[in-house]
Amino acid sequence: MKVLNLYACLGGNRLLWENCEVTAVELDKDLARMYQERFPNDTVIVGDAHEYLLQNYKNFDFIWSSPPCPTHSKIRILRKDNIGFVPAYPEMQLYQEIILLQKLFKGMFCVENVIPYYEPLIPAQKRGRHLYWCNFKLPQILTTRNCPKIRAKDNGLEAQQLKDLSDFHNFDFSLYEGAQRKIKIARNLIDYEVGKTIFDVAMKLHTQIQDKQLSIF
Ligand SMILES: C[S@@+](CC[C@H](N)C(=O)[O-])C[C@H]1O[C@@H](n2cnc3c(N)ncnc32)[C@H](O)[C@@H]1O
After folding, report:
1. 72 Cα: distance to centroid of ligand 1 (angstroms)
2. Rounded distance from Cα 212 to ligand 1 centre (Å)
3. pLDDT tens across 99-116, in order?
4. Atom of ligand 1 nearest to the CA of 180
5. Could you tell me the CATH superfamily of domain 2-145+191-216?
């Protein structure tokens, strides 16, 4: 199965994917470097995932997209003080990608994001603290693992949270040397068990479609 992994970060979602050929797109050079070290057999592209999708979606069987969530997150309106939050429009790339995949793409897809502070513009499947826009039904339970509690910014807690998240994701985030905050990156990663559950459904459907096509010939 040919897989496109957009906004790849450190491949939290990708860790347990097997028997596939993966192309990953990540804008942050240092994250792309670390992703490549983690998954030496994947093709890694440093660039804009949104544009890459538009130009290349036809070349894949399964597409996973995790566009950045900050402009959709409830944190934007939940915090009373809202310190540090400059007003921002919700980034519509999220919905542009879902529409493109729903209407033009012939393979399977999963676009993942947080539950937004507004009514989602396109209905999604809700699991845990996330929404998933897929063209297949997801199992009710995606993971049996409990993610460490993520609390609001608190410098005293940050080192401990980073350690907890390193253990949870089986990755040492202190190796990152780029411009983003390490804790932000650690919080970005999808639980690898969630990634595997969704990937396995897509793989099963892909195999069924291939078997059907073979039986026609
Ligand atoms: C929410 S994280 C993805 C997490 C990933 N699915 C995982 O499980 O590890 C979003 C990532 O998108 C990257 N990013 C932001 N804008 C991007 C763009 N236009 N093109 C490619 N990557 C981008 C960020 O650097 C960040 O690593």
Report:
1. 14
2. 35
3. 999 999 999 999 999 999
4. 25
5. Vaccinia Virus protein VP39 (3.40.50.150)
